[in-house]
Amino acid sequence: MVSENKKGFEDIELDLVLEMVRRYSLFSESGEYINSDAFTCDENLLSSRYEKIDSYMALLSGERDLDHFPSIAHVFQFVSKSHQDIDSRDVYLIGEFIASYVKMMIFLGREDDADDALLALRDDILSSLDMEGNVFEDHKRLIPLRRNLESAKARRQSYAFSFMRDNQALIQGDNPLFRNQRIVIPVKAAEKSRISGYLQGSSSSGQTLYMEPLELISYNNDVVLAEERIKDEIREIKHELANRTRERIWDIKRMRDEAMDFDFHYSFALWNTKVGAKHIRRANRIRLIDASHPLLKKAVPISIRIDENIKCVVFSGANAGGKTVTMKTIALFAALNQISTFIPAKEESELPLFSSILTDIGDGQSILSDESTFSSHLANIARIIRTTDEKSLILLDELGSGTDPEEGSALALSVLDYLKDRARLTLSSSHYSRVKTHAYTSDGMMNASMAFSDDTGMPLYKVIENIPGDSHAIDAAKRMRLPKEITDNARLILSDRNESAASLISSLIKKSRTLDRKISDAERMRREAEKRESELEAELEKERRKVHELEKSGLSDISTFLRDARKTLENLISDIQTGKLDKAKIKKAKDFMQNVQRKEADVRSRVAKSEEEEEEDMTFNPGESVLCGKSRIKGQILEKSGKSYLVLLSSGLKLRLKAADLESFDQKKEISLPSFSKSSRKAEYEMDIRGLSGDMAIERLEDQMEAAILSSLKSFSIIHGLGDGILMHRVHDYLKTRSEVESYYFARPEDGGMGKTYVKLR
Q1: 254 and 97 Cβ atoms separated by less than 8 Å
Q2: Partners of 184 in the beta sheet?
Q3: How far apart are CA 450 and CA 315, in angstroms?
Q4: Which one, of 369, 420, 358, lies nearest residue 392 by Cα?
Q5: Per-residue b/e over 706-736, b at no fewer than 16 CB within 10 Å?
Q6: Cys-Cys crosslink for 170: which of 121, 128, 191, 381, Cβ 3.0 to 4.6 Å?
Q7: % of the chain with per-residue pLDDT over 90
């Protein structure tokens, strides 16, 4: 069955689409997984792929700092066959791989899962080796050895020049020379006997001898030994890194497997985002809505519905009208759905799972095998019949063509009837009227035609369900500028032989277009009614919020008045203590205070009741998109239980939240007034806004100011951190605009200094 699928995948050009996906890959080795072998019917595996791809697509909206993974497969092969040290260039690749892996873990929010020992190995490799596997010259273990080498060279140089100064009469030249990595002295040949040492060579003329005086030999040896010590240390560094890499090689292999799995799903996530692919529902029927073929630059989106009781669809219509492309698109999207569960179509689309995709598309004629077009089609059909099962998707292009039309149409009818009872779905294109008529009258079969414009004489590349299509061969001949005499005569012949069938098809097409217009008008009216209903609901919500704001404003005024009254009472008590008031005045003041407090409690009760009613009015339905909490994280309602909702966050986490903690997208767009949930009215003595954006921080601060005023909080502190000072300046600029702020100032150094601001209210 695999080889049969391969033929089908080639015909629908699946690998060309997967090549587009592979371009987004970060790991060349994972390319072997992004191919047609990933096609599967395993529902659990497909669910797992969907969850990963969907979560990665959600992460793509944030910051990405990912690197390509170097290829390291050959390293594992070497380790399994040899006990020699791993080549230092391969050790460097391992270091690069671990670094890319760590960035992958950070992207996934799993940085805490990183192995500390492997992190240390990464750091030691990348701080020790360059990409060619050479140890850096400034490696910390080489620095003292290189200093010793430079000292030895300096001592040798100093001695050589000193010797030449002391023996100028014997020397030939002004500078010592290098021979075989050793410094030698150029000596006149006639003076050789006057210098004790070894002869290292001579000039071509023989007039100059290169001597190494006995004491210079020691200096040269010191330099050679220092260089050898550096080489030994470099070998030791490489050996240690190779050993440490070998010790963790199977952990690294596990990381490689994780990276390949990640890259498979990440590549599809990026491609899905690029082409606008959506996750679609699994169903027994086919329902494609605005499906755009990814290989066509100016693809006309197609829409088609095939009920589960339909086992065979006959596509007909004009040549080059899109019949074959439509069939290929259906099959291609079925394959993509069974690889990644995402296709470039609207998310309301639906597809079943197929066990195989079997095709007979194209000419297939072979000169070498002496095989005709018709013979090639028959061979393919025989192969398909041998391998099909009840879950197969079959594509047959121009079934029965290449032979006598009467016999070809009869054979086509027989093949379709045979496959209708044995395959899940057969898609066939045909120009035969008998085949179209048979599909129109047989159970489990349906026609589908490609729309054609009578005005322009051009195909529209739109699928019309349940309607057979005319081939428009004469119109095509006219467009190709065949003589008018030929096309006119062809029309006369056609009208004599097939007028009734043509009239039937034309009538059906006109009725279909009329029905389409009525459906479009009804859909437009439904959308307008929904829009008007939504506008009315928004207006009602706006008015209710205005009432709430007025009550809240009144409560704020009473709270201010209450604070003033409390000050008055404090003054009265002070007067009592000094003997200025009598008991009657004190009682009057207390009565006044109690009346004010009762008034405050009454307004608070009305506001609370308003909020409870608001919370009760806020209902959400399963599947609805919402914003969650103060951070406004995107989520989707899964179910309602009592007064709470189970919400799936964009991060994949599931939480149970109250209605007050949720906000629909439509609410956000239509209502610009701030919300006053219970959580936003709790004043904080110390609020921490580090890590928030400027706008989110100011929003938090606004809630805090309102809560502080309502609860008569006189002061509070804001932890904004130091950083670049941007957040601190935003906070201070905002505080300047609030008349309720009496003063603000930085904390003491031991209490946070300039990273913390104290606010005092009037």
Answers
A1: no
A2: 177
A3: 8
A4: 358
A5: bbbbbeebeebbbebbeeeeebbebbeebbe
A6: 191
A7: 42
Structure tokens at 260: 């390949």
Report the Cα 55 to chain-centroid distance in Å.
Answer: 8
Cα-based torsion angle of the residue sequence 738, 741, 745, 751 in order, rounded to the nearest 10 degrees: -110
- Asked if residue 338 lies in contact with residue 327, where contact means CB atoms within 8 angstroms, the answer is no
**How far is Cα 762 from Cα 64, in angstroms, rounded to an integer?**
46
Name residue 658's beta-bridge partners.
644
Burial of 160 (C-beta count, 10 Å sphere; 0-12/13-18/19+): buried
What pTM was estimated for this model as a whole? Answer: 0.61
∠ Cα 478 484 488 (to 5°): 90
pLDDT by residue (tens digit) across 430-461? Answer: 888 888 888 888 899 999 988 766 555 566 77
741-746 and 756-761 beta bridge pairing: antiparallel
Nearest to 652 by CA among 3, 50, 232: 50
What six digits make up the tokens of 73? 């497969």
Tokens of 520: 């479009």
Sign of CA dihedral 513, 516, 521, 522: positive
**What residues form DSSP beta bridges with 321?**
none
pLDDT, tens only, 549-585:
655 555 555 556 656 665 665 565 555 555 555 556 5
Please report the pLDDT score of residue 343 as a whole number.
Answer: 96
The span from the CA of 384 to the CA of 427, in Å, is 13
Measured CA to CA, the distance from residue 209 to residue 205 in angstroms comes to 10
pLDDT higher than 90, residue 257: yes
Q: Is the pLDDT of residue 311 over 60?
A: yes
For Cα atoms 98, 103, 109, give the angle at the middle one, nearest 5 degrees: 125
Residue 304 tokens, joined: 């088609």
Give the CATH number of domain 682-762; options: 3.30.1370.110, 1.10.10.60, 3.40.50.10490, 3.40.80.10.
3.30.1370.110
Rounded CA-CA distance 697/723 in Å is 15
Give the whole-angstrom CA distance, residue 130 versus residue 107. 26
Buried b (16+ CB within 10 A) or exposed e, 629-658: bbeeebbbbeeeeeeebbbebbeeeeeebe
Q: How far apart are CA 381 and CA 365, in angstroms?
A: 14
Cα 68 from chain centroid (whole Å): 15
CATH of domain 283-482: 3.40.50.300
Q: Where are the domains of the chain?
A: 283-482, 682-762
Cα 110 to Cα 102, 105, 115: the distances in Å are: 9, 5, 11
Which of 295-299, 389-393, 493-497 shows the lowest per-residue confidence on average (mean pLDDT)?
493-497
> HEC states along 172-185?
CCCCCEEECCEEEE
> How far is Cα of residue 556 from the mean position of the Cα atoms in its chain?
47
Closest by CA position to 555, among listed 379, 413, 367, 681: 681
Strand ranges across the sheet with 741-746: 686-688, 715-719, 756-761, 741-746
Cα–Cα distance for residue pair 569/573, rounded to 1 Å: 6
Token pair listed for 296: 């066509």
Q: Compute the CA torsion angle 154, 159, 160, 162 (nearest 10 deg).
A: 120
Radius of gyration in angstroms for the set of CA atoms belonging to the chain, rounded to a whole number: 42
- Over the stretch 652-683, which tens digit does the pLDDT of each residue have? 666 778 787 788 765 444 333 333 343 445 67
Structure tokens at 578: 């000094």
